[in-house]
Design goal:
This protein is of the alpha/beta class. It is built from three helices and seven strands, in the order βααββββαββ. It has two domains: about 70 residues, Transcription elongation factor, GreA/GreB, N-terminal domain (Helix Hairpins), CATH 1.10.287.180; about 60 residues, Chitinase A, domain 3 (Roll), CATH 3.10.50.30. Strands 5-4-3-7-6 form a five-stranded mixed sheet. The protein has a two-stranded parallel ribbon with strand order 1-2. A hairpin with a 2-residue loop joins strand 3 and strand 4. Helix 1 packs antiparallel against helix 2.
Length: about 160
């Protein structure tokens, strides 16, 4: 199984979320459930029922994050050629009058609203390995769009 790339900041954020679940959120909810259980009839106790549901959600997220952290590899080195699009690159591209600025990230860090797209997306695959001045062609529902790489930066 190949490992998914992730930035150091992305890995730290994922690790912090896991630690928050384990050290803060789960103990707090366990205390709430224990208090609700002590109130008596559990079958009609909304706090108890909600608390147990929340514990299942926390445990599910805990398992998910633990597996994801095992299946990623932190990439925090710069490529040999800084004008070539690789993981972590922020690229400025143009097509006609339209300009787009995107950062290539792993699947755990995708945020289209912030211009963070996956290496595995159609646009990510099209620009990967391209250099400043080269053209990347992307097939869209409206046809093929040619994007010119204007700049590539890292960091």
């Amino acid at each position: 199984m190949s490992k998914t790339p992730i930035s150091k900041a992305g890995w730290l954020a994922m690790r912090a979320e896991l630690e928050e679940l384990i050290e803060v959120e789960r103990p707090r909810v366990v205390d709430e459930v224990a208090f609700a259980a002590a109130q008596g009839d559990r079958s009609e106790n909304a706090e108890y029922i909600y608390g147990k549901r929340r514990l299942r959600e926390i445990d599910r997220q805990w398992r998910y994050l633990s597996r994801r952290l095992e299946s990623v590899v932190v990439v925090d080195t710069l490529p040999d050629q800084l004008d070539e699009v690789r993981f972590g690159a922020t690229i400025q591209m143009t097509t006609g009058p339209k300009t787009l600025v995107l950062t290539l990230v792993g699947e755990d860090e995708i945020d289209p609203a912030k211009g963070r797209i996956s290496l595995q997306s159609p646009l990510g695959k099209a620009v990967l390995g391209k250099k400043t001045g080269e053209v990347a062609e992307v097939t869209t529902p409206k046809g093929v769009v040619a994007w010119t790489i204007e700049s590539v930066t890292y960091g």
